[in-house]
Amino acid sequence: MTSTPAPLSTSPATSPAAAAGPIPVVVAGALGRMGAEVVRAVRDAPDCTLVGAIDTTPGKEGSDVGLELGLGELEVAISADFEGSLCQASQAVRNAGPGAGAVLVDFTHPAVVYEHCRGAIAYGVHPVIGTTGLSPLQLGELASFAAKASIGGAVIPNFSVGMVLLQQAAAAAARFYDYAELTELHHNRKADAPSGTCIKTAELIEELGKAFNPAQVEEHETLAGCRGGRRQSGLRLHSIRLPGLVAHQEVLFGAPGETYTLRHDTIDRSAYMPGVLHTVRRVRQLEGLVYGLERLL
After folding, report:
1. Minimal CA–CA distance to 274: which of 126, 162, 110, 129?
2. Pick the catalytic residue: 186, 200, 238, 264?
3. pLDDT exceeds 60 at position 145
4. Are 37 and 270 in contact (CB under 8 A)?
5. DSSP string, the chain
6. Catalytic residue among 60, 109, 190, 248
7. Which residues, including other chains, have CB under 8 Å from residue 46's CB and lie 6 or more apart?
8. What is the mean pLDDT of residues 191-203?
9. Which range has the worst mean pLDDT, 26-35, 86-95, 141-150, 206-215?
10. What is the mean pLDDT of residues 119-124?
11. Under a CB-based contact definition with an 8 Å cutoff, are residues 27 and 54 in contact?
C-alpha cells in the first residue's frame, strides 16, 4: 500500500441527517449467538428493518432466518453470498440520498472481518463491526478506505455501556497507579485472545503516556506465558477461556498497602443490544471510521 492510512476518527463527525424511513440492516453471522440477538433486536426496533441475513452454516441457505431462530417468519432468506447480499442491500437504497444507505452489522470471525468491513465500504454499506481481531494496521487501512469512499463506519470491540464506563474509570485510575494488570474471561468458542475489548482498555490506559509495572525482581517463568502477554507500556494482559462464561473483564491496580479492582460482567448477550442499535442509528451520519463505543455516546 503506497498511501499512509488515515487515522481512526476520535470524534463522531457527522454528515447530513438521515433520510426518513426505517434503517435497512444486514446481519452477518445471523445464526450465531450474537447475530441471533441482533436479528431479534432489529426486528423489535421500530426504526430498523432487516433486509439481509448472511450465514455460512451448512444446509441453512434459503431458509427464513426468523423461522430458524424461532422468531416467526421474517421473510428474509439466509444467504451465504456475502457480496451478493451487500450488493442487493446497496441497490435497494441507491437513490435514498445523503445520510441514508444500508447498514451491515457483523459478528462473524476474525479471519474474515477485514474483508467484510472493506467489502461493505466498497458497496456503500455502512459497516458496524462487532467482530474483534483486527490489527492496528488493518484498522488504519480500513479508516483510509472509508475516508476515501466517504462512508461512515464503526468498529466496536464491546457494545456494552457498562464496559465503556469501566474503561473510562480505568483510564482515570491509571494516573494514580504504576502497577496494573488486565484479565479478560470469555466462553471457549471465542477465537481471538486477548479480546479486542481488553486491548482497547489497555490502549485507553496507555493514552496517559506512562510506563507500568517497573520490575522489582528478575522474573522467570517456569511455564511459558503464565505471566500473560506484556505490552510495550508494561501492562500485562491475561486471557481465560471456559464454557459457562459469556464476557467478563477485570482491571487490577496495585500500590503499597492497597489494590483497586474494576470489573464488568456480561450475564447475557442482550446487554449489548442497546449499544448495537445506538451505533446502527448513528453510523450513517459519520464521515469516517470510528473505533470504540465511547466515541458515539
Report:
1. 162
2. 186
3. yes
4. yes
5. --SPPPPPBSS--B-SPPPSSPEEEEEETTTSHHHHHHHHHHHH-TTEEEEEEE---TT-TTSBHHHHTTS---S-BEES-HHHHHHHHHHHTTTS-TT---EEEE-S-HHHHHHHHHHHHHTTPEEEE------HHHHHHHHHHHHHHT--EEE-S---HHHHHHHHHHHHHTTT-SEEEEEEEE-TT--SSS-HHHHHHHHHHHTT-------SS----SSTTTT-EEPTTS-EEEEEE-TT--EEEEEEEEETTEEEEEEEEE-SGGGGHHHHHHHHHHHTTBSSEEESGGGT-
6. 190
7. 22
8. 94
9. 86-95
10. 96
11. yes
Choose among 74, 92, 91: nearest CA to 21: 92
Asked about 60 being catalytic, the answer comes back as no
**What is the spatial distance between Cα 95 and Cα 92, in angstroms, rounded to a whole number?**
8
Assess whether 200 carries a catalytic annotation: no
Per the omega criterion (within 30 degrees of 0), is the bond before 194 cis?
A: yes
Q: What is the mean pLDDT of the chain?
A: 92
Provide the pLDDT for residue 1: 41
Percent of the chain with pLDDT over 70: 91
Identify which of 231, 225, 196, 200 has the alpha carbon closest to the alpha carbon of residue 213.
Answer: 231
pLDDT band at 20 (very low <50, low <70, confident <90, very high): low
pLDDT digits (tens, 9 = 90+) for 25-41: 999 999 999 999 999 99
